[in-house]
Amino acid sequence: MLSGNTALARPLVIGTISDEPVKEIRAFLPFAKYLAKQLETFGIDDGKVVIARDIDHMASLINKGEVDLFVDSPLVALAIIGKTGCRLLARRWKKGIAQYHSVVFVRQDSDIDSVHDLTGRIVAFEESYSSSGHLLPRITMERMGVPLTQLLNLQSNVPTKQAGYVFSGDDESTMEWVLRGRVDAGAMSMANFENRVATNWKELKIILKTAGIPRHSVSISSEISGPLSSAIEAVLFTMQDSEDGQSVLDSFENTTKFDPIPKETMALLDLFQIPVLALVGEE
């Protein structure tokens, strides 16, 4: 357990999930070093970054005490919380965005006008652990009464009274597959949809906009002591108030700030806890 005992000096370890570890370590390391420097009185002597390959890998690292803070999308964080007992600590305004929505969209000339029309059709999600490109839109659709089942490929038959889905690998492919008619619908964050739609606005229509959730979140291991947890919060919530802190925020993927997760947002995330764990169990 990390406490205020300097005799047990050790690094503060921040983790995230990515298939691009070198890129993520480069982005996260200055942030980890900054936090460590501010927490020296708690025996923190360095800041380190660990990149996991998937949710189960990250959960294992946290349970073994090898990761103290987990920074990622909130629905992925809910899966981690369910497997480790850690808790949400803060909201991260990644690239200046506090909250985001996901959208499900189809071709403008499609006869699909709502997600309920997707029965017997195919939806493209980004990848299994993507909050905006899979978890949020899928859970929303299923809560609306649209059951989904994963297909082996685009040629697979969709089960009766269900919608089928496939993973495209990235948002660009999702949009291209919809535009070219390879799939009937696609899902991604509203921000990514607006960025990628470009001159294709007239060719697409949105049939679902989900509720908003934090763009990113910080979770903390249950092994970290109360005083240190409070100190980490204080450092996070005041980074923008100092020149050094602001510089680190700017370099950390243009993070605007960290702040507490609003109560109404926490209540919404609570509704997603069980569905997220159920979906993660499918993987």
From TrEMBL:
Taxonomic superkingdom: Bacteria
Pfam families (alphabetical): Phosphonate-bd (PF12974)
Name this protein carries in UniProt: Phosphate/phosphite/phosphonate ABC transporter substrate-binding protein
Biological source species: Parasedimentitalea psychrophila
